Amino acid sequence: MKTIASRLIALFTAALVLGAASTTAAAGKPRAVAPLGNPGNWVTTEDYPSRALRYEEQGVVGFLLTIGTDGVPLSCKVTQTSNFEALDTQTCNLLMERARFRPAADAFGRAAEGTYRSSVRWTIPEDAPTEIGPAEMFVSFEIGPDGLAKNCKVEKAEGTLPFPANEPCGPKGRFAVPVGKDGKPIMRRVKMRVVIEVEDVPPAQ
Fold first, then answer.
1. How many CB atoms lie within 10 A of CB 57?
2. Has keyword Signal (predicted)?
3. I want to staple 135 with a disulfide (CB 3.0 to 4.6 A). Which of 129, 184, 191, 196 is the partner?
4. How far apart are CA 191 and CA 168, in angstroms?
């Protein structure tokens, strides 16, 4: 005959088994993170870095976000570089600031950390504004006996240029053939210094 103690132990064991079975039955599939809103609004052409616009930098930035249990990004990692630091950095900065998600959940519906992987394509818009500011550039090139320019090189460029730094290279057209003291064609090196000054214009009285 079973004692009262043995019956209690059997009942307790049965309760544990039933509890485990019901917990297993309640478990479902884990849920991945899901963007809130339109991800296309997280990074727009209006966010184009001014330096990237100035130097006509374009490219695709692949990224991996780690999302916290509150749906806010914890970190951003560039998985595919655009080869331009300004674009890579701007991508992660904007995503950390703007991207929001429905957090991931485990098999029991509890919020969990998750990841989100995608990419941003940076393409310069046709109506992008051109910035201009104080700047200075030193360019050199050579004029050969045929009167054509060659070996153009940007020696130095500083400031906010309204055109790509390498644009002054490659002068078009034909130049006067340089000649030496003996009247024979020679090679001549030309150095240019381009200075851009900007000043505010007071309003008309």
1. 19
2. yes
3. 196
4. 12
Lowest-confidence range among 63-77, 79-93, 137-151?
137-151
String of DSSP letters for 151-189: EEEEEEEEE--SS-TTTTSS--S-PPPPB-TTS-B--EE
Task: Tell me 40's DSSP state.
Answer: G
Q: Enter the DSSP assignment of 36.
A: S
Say what the pTM is.
0.56
Residue 202 CB partners (closer than 8 Å, separation 6+): none
Query: Across the strands, what pairs with 47?
Result: none
CB proximity list for 155: less than 8 A, separation 6 or greater: 138, 139, 140, 191
Give the integer Cα–Cα distance in Å for 29 and 83.
39
Say which residues have a Cβ less than 8 Å from residue 117's Cβ, sequence separation at least 6: 62, 63, 64, 65, 79
Distance of CA 36 to the CA centre of its chain: 21
Q: How far is CA 7 from CA 11, 17, 50, 114, 137, in A?
A: 6, 15, 79, 46, 94
